[in-house]
Design brief:
The protein has about 250 residues and is α/β, with parallel strands linked by helices. The protein has eight helices and six strands. Bound molecules: 3-methylbut-3-enyl trihydrogen diphosphate (IPE) (2 copies) and magnesium ion.
């Protein structure tokens, strides 16, 4: 789906790789889990700040399909933290009109976590202030293969003809099919890579990288990302003059 942002200086959809929790804790001679707990506080503040700024969709990378490769203790801590944070914050987020959905392969999660995810999703499903998508056990490559499998099954059972496969049909089977593509991508923590996040959907997204570690990502930094976005000219292959001309019409 194409971007919903038609020249508006506030991005309709922001996605964030919330990186740097471990290093933040290590710098303080604390266990990495301390950084993850602090990170949850930043997450709450980011949801609130961007919702107030008028952002309609926020997609947060909470756990990648590659994060299972971490030490088992850290993975367990993260799973517990997801469960407790969801339990603790769902009602408040619901009161604020936030719709929460999870993207990614949830089959690998414990039954308890899956149940909590389902109840959070159904409680908040009619909310309209902000769509909050949490990417957990998510990988962009998984997303594409998953879409391909659904399309292949439709081809096999005759529901679909191969000549009808085009970009929009393919995108209709991706995780964020009903959501405009991200306008702004933010990655904290200093790394300048995508780490298998929304690789298809990021085709024309504005990228913003900062060295600030996620627990230190204050509302001032959030505003700096919005300000930087407002300065960008999105050309989609056109010339700068064409874009200026279109804005004057
Ligand atoms: C991001 O912070 C949180 C998750 C991946 C769950 P990290 O844990 O990757 O922190 P660093 O990159 O090691 O500092
Ligand atoms: C990406 O961060 C995933 C999340 C923030 C959830 P990582 O810290 O796992 O990324 P890499 O492995 O350093 O690229
Ligand atoms: Mg990291």
């Amino acid at each position: 789906m194409v971007s919903a942002d038609t020249g508006n200086s506030i991005p309709a959809h922001i996605c964030i790789i919330m990186d740097g929790n471990g290093r933040w804790a290590t710098k303080r001679l604390m266990p990495r889990s301390y950084g993850h707990k602090k990170g949850v506080e930043t997450t709450r503040s980011a949801v609130e700040y961007f919702a107030k700024a008028g952002v309609k969709h926020l997609t947060l990378f909470a756990f990648s399909s590659e994060n299972w490769n971490r030490p088992v203790d850290e993975v367990n801590t993260l799973m517990e933290l997801f469960l407790t944070s969801l339990k603790k914050n769902t009602d408040e987020l619901n009161d604020k009109g936030i719709r929460i959905r999870f993207i990614g392969d949830r089959s690998a999660f414990s039954q308890k976590l899956r149940d909590q995810i389902s109840s959070t999703e159904s409680l908040t499903q009619n909310n309209q202030t902000l769509n909050l998508n949490i990417a957990a056990n998510y990988g962009g490559q998984w997303d594409i293969i998953n879409a391909l499998q659904i399309i292949t099954a439709k081809l096999e059972n005759g529901e679909l003809d191969s000549e009808n496969i085009d970009q929009s049909l393919f995108e209709s089977q991706l995780s964020l099919a009903d959501t405009p593509e991200p306008d702004l991508f933010i990655r904290t923590g200093g790394e300048q890579r995508i780490s298998n996040f929304l690789i298809w959907q990021l085709a024309y997204t504005e990228l913003f990288f900062t060295d600030v570690l996620w627990p230190d990502f204050t509302t001032r930094e959030m505003q700096a990302a919005l300000d930087e976005y407002a300065r960008r000219q999105r050309r989609y292959g056109k010339t700068g003059d064409q874009i200026v001309g279109e804005m004057q019409c």
